[in-house]
Write a structure and sequence with these properties.
CATH class: Alpha Beta
Shape: globular
Largest sheet: 8 strands, mixed
Order of helices and strands: EEEEHEHEHHHEEEEEHEHE
CATH topology: Metallo-beta-lactamase, Chain A
CATH superfamily: Ribonuclease Z/Hydroxyacylglutathione hydrolase-like
Number of helices: 7
Distance between the termini: 27 Å
Number of strands: 13
Strand content: 25-35%
Length: about 240
């Protein structure tokens, strides 16, 4: 199933740089979507505040790169975010979920259940931050439009229940936040697998699905997570895409 949106409430998309993988320069990305009525949707939260400035940690986060710092630079507080889309519960994507106990956190049911039950280190490492009992998770199954012009797309493989986000912007048009599901410049059948891709056939199918959606919807911009070359070429907050 894929939901076609004729009207959009999204007015602007901001790219948030949450830091990098230490020693590799691989960016840790986040995204903020501003809606017409003044609400804000955040996509991923990055790493926890406790690791800021910790030279021994594998993720490198500067004082202003934590999600709360990035929001403050846009004149916002965590409380100004009404919805958090969780692409998946890996530590660099959900490590600051605990900053948003007031928000609805949208995650695929399969991912939430896998993270809570699998015992994998990638989830357990920072579980205290994403499994905080104060958090309000909204579990979804498959593609769901969470606001007019903002649709989550199930594309599991990297992990079960990974999700991407399609944002319809008034000037730029459709933008696909592909998460960790699509490796830029590769064919799904031949793309390299990383140690973090749990299901190879599903990972390949997920990338192909996103490519087909992007083609069908005339997506003008696909943003790929952890792609240092592309990330350097994009417009970052406080500048946004409209």
């Amino acid at each position: 199933m894929f939901i076609v949106t004729l009207m959009t409430e999204a007015t602007e998309l901001f790219l948030l740089h949450y830091g990098a993988v230490r020693g590799h320069g691989v960016p840790i990305p986040g995204f903020l979507i501003r809606l017409r009525d003044g609400r804000h949707i955040l996509v991923d939260t990055g790493c926890p505040a406790e690791i800021i400035g910790d030279a021994a940690h594998p993720f490198e986060v500067g004082p202003h790169e934590h999600v709360t710092g990035r929001l403050a630079a846009l004149g916002l507080a965590a409380a100004d975010v009404s919805t958090v889309v969780v692409s998946h519960l890996d530590p660099d994507h959900a490590g600051a979920n605990d900053e948003f106990p007031h928000a609805d956190l949208v995650v695929q049911r399969r991912q939430y259940e896998h993270a809570r039950s699998s015992g994998l280190h990638r989830y357990e490492w920072m579980r205290a931050y994403w499994d905080d009992p104060r958090l309000r998770y909204r579990l979804v199954d498959g593609d769901v439009e969470i606001a007019p012009g903002v649709t989550v797309l199930e594309c599991g493989g990297h992990v079960p229940g990974h999700q991407a986000v399609l944002v319809e912007l008034p000037e730029t048009g459709p933008v696909l936040l592909a998460g960790d599901a699509w490796m830029r410049g590769t064919d799904p059948a031949a793309r390299p697998m990383t140690p973090f891709d749990l299901d190879e056939p599903a990972t390949r199918l997920a990338q192909r699905r996103l490519m087909e959606i992007a083609d069908a919807r005339g997506v003008r911009l696909v943003i790929h997570n952890h792609d240092a070359e592309q990330w350097a070429s994009l417009r970052h907050a406080p500048d946004g895409y409209r």
